[in-house]
């Protein structure tokens, strides 16, 4: 969910406890949402097809073998194979859509002008950078900010849990150790589900079904959004409960991410920078200030963060940091991508 500040709105102070807002919304460009949706569906299909191939051959769900970008070209020659990517693609896109529609529907409930979800296709290990909505009018109260902020994580977390149980029940042990694989760090929710399902195989040695892989991505996205700072969903929740403590808690979150980035996953350093850059939260009317039962519901957000968070989401199977390896393989994969395009053009 994006910041509520908007260049298309002005506030008229009346000298009373209420405000009058004059909103001039932009025209909706539905075609942009449709194009991005279809492009993301395609990019996640490509990734999902590779995941399904790995699963059918009892291999790790992710592998760094020099063809990071090549699948985004080779599918053109064999488009029917994209059908294998449907389980991952539909599961992940449903989780992302549920998250953003949670924000959107509650924004509509409070008469806050918000766009439909924008999906972001990206040639990567998961085929997307997620989805987002843009809020283009002021949020009328702290209660509205809380409801809009927490609705997304709850709406996305529920289908992620369903996909987690279904996907883990379909997963099976890896046939052989792949020295070039990325080893996932599993959040508490995965360990609890494995215990409930009586899965004796350690999670790192499972060949995840693509549905379980989509659930993992959904959990990871939920944890990122619930980080308690800045203008993330977690930051909105903190601000709605205590505007005075928002800045301090945001800085504490930044300080907590720095050692995590040093010792577990360097990506946390990037998130620390992003949080530090978005500490300033757009103004929200402080009255009415009554939140009622929402303070208790905030514990649900904390519980989801605990269940979905993992300090080391990505590591190399050898124990090395994954990013240097990913960078090198990305260069090789990009060269494979260029070579593949040249071959296709030469063939035509």
Structure described in brief:
The chain is mainly α.
The rough form would be described as globular
The average pLDDT is 83
Q: Give the strand tally.
A: 8
Tally of separate domains? 1
Largest sheet: 2 strands, antiparallel
Strand content: 5-15%
| Radius of gyration, taken over Cα atoms and rounded to an integer in Å | 22 Å
**Count of runs of 4 or more consecutive helical residues:** 11
Task: Measure the end-to-end span.
Answer: 44 Å
Supply the helix-strand structural class.
Answer: mainly alpha
Order of helices and strands: EEHHHEEHEEHEHHHHHEH
Helix content: 40-55%
Oligomer: single chain
Low-confidence stretches: 2-14
Order of strands in the sheet with most strands: 1-2
Plain-language structure description:
The protein is mainly α and 348 residues long. It has helices at residues 30-56, 71-74, 86-109, 142-170, 188-196, 210-225, 233-241, 243-263, 267-277, 294-308, 322-347; strands at 9-13, 19-23, 118-121, 128-132, 172-173, 182-184, 206-207, 314-316. The chain is built from 11 helices and 8 strands. The strands form 4 sheets. It has a two-stranded antiparallel ribbon. Strands 3-4 form a two-stranded antiparallel sheet. Strand 3 (118-121) and strand 4 (128-132) form a beta hairpin. Helix 4 crosses helix 5 (188-196), helix 4 packs antiparallel against helix 7 and helix 7 packs antiparallel against helix 8 (243-263). The termini are far apart.
